[in-house]
Write a structure and sequence with these properties.
The chain is mainly alpha-helical. Helices cover about 65% and strands about 5% of the residues. The protein has 23 helices and six strands. The strands form two sheets. It has a three-stranded mixed beta sheet with strand order 1-2-3. A three-stranded mixed beta sheet has the order 4-5-6. The model has no long low-confidence stretch (mean pLDDT about 85).
Length: about 450
């Protein structure tokens, strides 16, 4: 298949080679097609949608840039929108509407059927980042009393507009979820067998109000491609599929990385975020950390008399602070990651404490030996006594840094705070202050 450029598509459009364009649309993967179309002028994209089959156009809408969607919706007629709505999954339509301004939302909803409007309003009513907000209501349901033959007929009837048919959910007459059956089991069962014989009653599920991250964790834990969503009474309302979960995992990972870097999480990607929102996301923690660094300056100032008499002490301050900071960051990164994937929690306090103490002893011992030899052999003017003071400080601060880095995230968790947001930015400041205090205490006692 030839790779086309936006300019080539524009040329085909301008020369009215519509058959060639339709052939290209059929050949291209929808995601690749969206990436190509995103780089074309909006007027030309609008014209392309007149050529595209309605089902392909509806699918393409789900992958276009939000700004493009807004301009397209402005350009589309009510009739065009109505034609596309017939082929859109309700959850995809809900996602599109969440990106549009109110006046355009009204325009789209005016083209929807009463049933579509009801479903859309229900999805939009759920809290952002909740399972309800990302679920699809297009799901195959079977009755507990169905035979396999009846189940196959139901799957054929419901499956065309269902998000997935790999899993069929068994419900009571009032809609309460009681279990699930895989399509594979149904296909290989006898026609006269009863669905009740195939049901797996141990069905992992989430509630509409649960955080979307819970759905991602359960899908990963049970190695499934979809998870049912129920209300508080257990009534099946929809499903969350693995493709939605991948988006959630990406969002959550990005958010955690930003928090660990002392950045308030951004709504959009780096490229799409403006200068002022980027500034606002960074400045708060920069101010907090700058002010908190006053403690470090105060410690140095309080021990100025030592630096005046033993100027060599100042040479090693950057190395000590960097080493301790790196150790603390290593420890905190491992613990925060463990918390995020549910490998550990507050209950593991003693286990983490004991592990960090042992790791600190090994790392501190190696650094003590290497640093003593480094200073003693390559900096003879400093002397072996100061070399031992610096190395002893390294040993102690490695231990303290690992403990602070490992336990501060647990403290944040115990306080019902986000470990990545609270612990990471503070760890370096705390460790710097502790490192300098230990350094000057040992120096004052020995030198």
């Amino acid at each position: 298949m030839k790779d086309y450029t936006p300019q080539e598509l524009s040329q085909l459009l301008q020369t009215r080679q519509f058959r060639t364009l339709r052939e290209i649309f059929e050949e291209y993967n929808i995601v690749d097609l969206a990436a190509l179309v995103d780089r074309m002028p909006v007027d030309e994209i609008t014209a392309l949608f007149k050529i595209l089959p309605k089902d392909k156009g509806a699918e393409l809408l789900s992958y276009l840039d939000p700004d493009i969607l807004e301009d397209l919706t402005n350009n589309f007629t009510v009739a065009q929108i109505g034609g596309l709505l017939e082929h859109l999954f309700i959850d995809d339509l809900s996602d599109i509407l969440s990106e549009l301004p109110d006046e355009l939302v009204k325009k789209v909803l005016s083209s929807a059927t009463p049933e579509q409007r009801s479903d859309i309003n229900a999805l939009l009513s759920y809290k952002e980042n909740s399972c309800g907000s990302i679920m699809s209501i297009d799901v195959v349901t079977l009755n507990v009393g169905d035979s396999v033959k009846e189940a196959m007929a139901a799957i054929k009837k419901q499956g065309k507009m269902a998000e997935t048919i790999n899993w069929c959910y068994i419900v009571e007459p009032k809609g309460k979820l009681i279990g699930y059956v895989s399509l594979k089991d149904i296909l290989f069962a006898k026609d006269d067998a009863m669905i009740e014989e195939l049901i797996d009653y141990d069905v992992p599920h989430v509630k509409t109000e649960d955080d979307q991250e819970k759905a991602a964790k359960l899908i990963s834990k049970y190695d499934i491609t979809a998870i049912p969503v129920t209300d508080l009474e257990g009534i099946l309302l929809g499903i969350i599929t693995v493709d939605d979960v991948l988006d959630v995992v990406t969002e959550e990972a990005t958010e955690d990385i930003q928090k660990m870097a002392a950045i308030i999480p951004l709504e959009d990607s780096y490229v799409e975020t403006g200068i002022f929102p980027m500034f606002k996301s960074r400045i708060t923690w920069l101010l907090v950390l700058m002010i908190s660094a006053t403690f470090t300056g105060s410690i140095i100032n309080a021990n100025n008399h030592l630096l005046v008499h033993i100027t060599s002490l100042a040479i090693f301050i950057p190395m000590l602070m960097d080493t301790a900071g790196n150790a603390g960051s290593q420890s905190s990164t491992m613990v925060i990651r463990g918390i995020v994937v549910d490998d550990m929690g507050v209950k593991d306090f003693v286990k983490i404490l004991w592990k960090e103490l042992r790791v600190s002893f090994l790392a501190g011992s190696v650094l003590f030996i290497v640093n003593t030899l480094r200073i003693g052999l390559f900096m003879p003017e400093v002397g072996w006594t100061l070399a031992l003071v610096v190395s002893a400080t390294v040993f102690i601060i490695i231990t303290l840094a690992n403990l602070v880095g490992g336990l501060l995230p647990l403290l944040a968790l115990a306080m019902k705070q986000d470990p990545a947001a609270m612990a990471s930015p503070l760890i370096t400041t705390v460790i710097d202050a502790v490192s300098l205090t230990v350094y000057f205490m040992i120096a004052a006692a020995v030198l």
